[in-house]
Amino acid sequence: SQQGEEDPQALSIQEGENATMNCSYKTSINNLQWYRQNSGRGLVHLILIRSNEREKHSGRLRVTLDTSKKSSSLLITASRAADTASYFCATDATRGYNQGGKLIFGQGTELSVKP
Amino acid sequence: ETGVTQTPRHLVMGMTNKKSLKCEQHLGHNAMYWYKQSAKKPLELMFVYNFKEQTENNSVPSRFSPECPNSSHLFLHLHTLQPEDSALYLCASSQTSAGELFFGEGSRLTVL
């Protein structure tokens, strides 16, 4: 079964509003990452939060992590039409030394920001 | 430009054809990945290579055959595919243990 599950599956907001997306996962993790994907394109890494961190900021992005609840949230403040994309959380539960990250992705949230 | 290049971007093939997808990374990373993205489904991890050695095969059917001749290049050889294999195939790379993946733009595969 998949590791990360996003909520909501789709979100439509007006430009200037904030967008919040949530992610829940099942097993212990090393870190949790958020990615963005424009339609039909590759994924772009947004932010990584480690299991011993609770909150992280990057520009208009704010990510929180609650390991006790196995959940994370991504907040995009002052959204823009260009933020329209799908957003995915991915959990890294890699075990073992010198292994590439084995990221397991959720189904994603489709965000639509209307001008 | 992410430093990961995939070719071709689009591919249409019949069920009896043999084709290959190519991925090249210019980032000096040691790990490379193939993911499959189908409509309405999460990204599925297919294969992981670390220092050219396959370290993950996520129960992928043998009609998909990966090849990693060096740390910069990754291929996915395709043969006798089924229509349900139509999807976006994404290649990614990372430094081992660094976590962050760098993705290519993907190869859109249609199997007729």
How does this model look, in words?
- The complex is a heterodimer of chains A (115) and B (112).
- Chain A is mostly beta strands and 115 residues long.
- Chain A has strands at residues 5-7, 10-14, 19-24, 31-37, 43-50, 55-58, 61-66, 71-76, 85-92, 103-105, 109-114.
- Chain A contains no helices and 11 strands.
- In chain A, strands 2, 4, 5, 9, 10 and 11 form a 6-stranded mixed β-sheet that branches. Chain A has a 5-stranded antiparallel β-sheet with strand order 1-3-8-7-6, with no helix packed on it.
- Chain A is globular, with a radius of gyration of 14 Å.
- Helix content of chain B is 0%, strand content 57%.
- In chain B, the strands form 2 sheets. In chain B, strands 2, 4, 5, 6, 9, 10 and 11 form a 7-stranded mixed β-sheet that branches.
- The chains are: A mainly beta (115), B mainly beta (112).
- The interface between A and B is medium-sized, with 29 and 34 residues.
Q: Could you give the order of the helices and strands of chain B? A: EEEEEEEEEEE
Number of helices of chain A: 0
Helicity range of the residues of chain A? under 10%
The interface involving the most residues is between: A-B, 29 and 34 residues
Strand content of chain A: over 45%
Number of strands of chain A: 11
Oligomer: heterodimer
Give the low-pLDDT segments of chain B.
Answer: none
- Content-based structural category of chain A: mainly beta
User: What shape does the CA trace of chain B take?
Assistant: globular
CA radius of gyration of chain A: 14 Å
Topology order of chain A in helix (H) and strand (E) letters: EEEEEEEEEEE
Please report which band the strand proportion of chain B falls in: under 5%, 5-15%, 15-25%, 25-35%, 35-45% or over 45%.
over 45%
> What Rg of chain B is obtained from the alpha carbons, in whole angstroms?
13 Å
Mean pLDDT of chain B: 91
What share of the residues of chain B lie within helices?
under 10%
Would you tell me the overall average pLDDT of chain A?
A: 90
Main beta-sheet strand count, sense and barrel state of chain B: 7 strands, mixed
